[in-house]
Amino acid sequence: MRDISTHIHPQTNLALHETLGPTIMMRGEGAYVYDDDGKQYLEGMSGLWCAALGMSEKRLADVATRQLNTLPYYQNFAHRSTEPAIELAERLLKVAPVAMSKVLFQSSGSEANDTAIKLVWYYFHAKGQTQKRKIITRHRGYHGTSIASASLTGLPHLHRDFNLPLDGFLHVTCPHFYREGLPGETEEAFSTRLAEELDQLIVAQGPETVGAFFAEPVMGTGGVIVPPADYFEKIQTVLRKHDVLLVADEVITGFGRTGNWWGSQTYAMKPDIVTCAKALTAAYMPLSALLISERVYQGMRAQSEKIGVFGHGYTYGAHPVACAVGVEALRIYEEDGIIDNVPALAARMQAAMAPLADHPLIGEVRGVGLMWAVELVRDKQSKEAFAPDMQFGLGVQNRAFERGLVCRSLGTGIALAPPLICTEEQIDEIVARFTQALNASL
Ligand code: PLP
């Protein structure tokens, strides 16, 4: 009641919330969370794809407490810095997927992507190509919900009635082979077709007006869309041809989620800018970062000299407590072999998920590393989805929740993204409970 009368929940049917109210989570332990009745849930989504180290990593709590007791805040504008920010930047540059020069810290994934848009514009201003402002992304991509990052996002319900996307944000076909591939088309031919579509769009708009292409290595919120064979290779050939920058949105895929440190490594992407957040601190503090290539940095440097200042920044950018937690999270990923262990867990997840392909409600099982989804269909043959697509998935999600499993309905798909610290037995249990929820939905 207190929640309903006071608290607005994002990404929620607000009227329905007034009827249903919230489940109030009280505490966490490893891969489990507990509600106010003491009921236990397996956190099959790592919160919102972020709590990679589970819910009770004491080293992260301790390092935050130490930093809070030493220097709880300092700003990083104009010639001020802190030790945790410096150390985290050094560590990020060491593990970056391609050679990167500098790191810029913000607080959320949306902020990082907003900032990346501005850096693309700033960079091309430095080069005297002030028209190179248009940004291309994919339908069903998710890049955040601020005005500019929501414009990058390719999900209609995040645009409708907000007058979005802004002008100059263009969307191309989602690389979902199961839904978008033509009859008889191979994955490679599908990738070629999508690269041609991108090429034609850039040519039609005028390459001198297109600044960047933003892409998640694996689309998360759009339904865990794993790119088809050769996709990024072909896309990057087009981008290079037209001098269009590539921004890899690694907000979900950064820090082991796909089995390597970065999704860019898994899919041979060579980005000019990487944005990351979520698992950067394993979600124990809000923090995001942009990894910036030398050529983009040189443009920023030149432009800031011309103007007298790099006119951008947030009060909480490079927050020292968040950065201290980030340093510790990266240490744990490395020293405890957390990321090295993902391929083994991924193999277990794949083996557990594979039989679901035969389930009468499922048209496709897809995933990589520890991000997976099933495609719900009314008819396996015709691939017809349930309508309205969200509702059926939400029913399955609720049945899973009743059985002590957190999963996430995403349009026609339902996602599972367990914490990287979960055990093989917990993976089996996640898939078992998920299967029970599906069976109960028949
Ligand atoms: N980019 C991706 C790929 C995301 O999945 C998200 C959030 O889920 C964002 C950006 C936005 O991050 P935030 O919610 O921290 O603003």
TrEMBL record:
Task: Identify the stretch annotated as signal peptide in this record.
Answer: none
Keywords attached to this Swiss-Prot or TrEMBL record, sorted alphabetically, are: Aminotransferase, Pyridoxal phosphate, Transferase
* GO BP annotation list: biotin biosynthetic process; gamma-aminobutyric acid metabolic process
Q: Which GO terms describe its molecular function?
A: adenosylmethionine-8-amino-7-oxononanoate transaminase activity; pyridoxal phosphate binding
Q: Which cofactor does it need?
A: pyridoxal 5'-phosphate
Q: Which Pfam families match?
A: Aminotran_3 (PF00202)
**InterPro entries assigned to the protein according to its UniProt record, in alphabetical order:** Aminotrans_3 (IPR005814), Aminotrans_3_PPA_site (IPR049704), PyrdxlP-dep_Trfase (IPR015424), PyrdxlP-dep_Trfase_major (IPR015421), PyrdxlP-dep_Trfase_small (IPR015422)
What family is reported?
Belongs to the class-III pyridoxal-phosphate-dependent aminotransferase family.
| NCBIfam families per record | PRK06105.1, PRK07480.1
Q: What is this protein called?
A: Aspartate aminotransferase family protein
Source organism of the structure: Phyllobacterium myrsinacearum
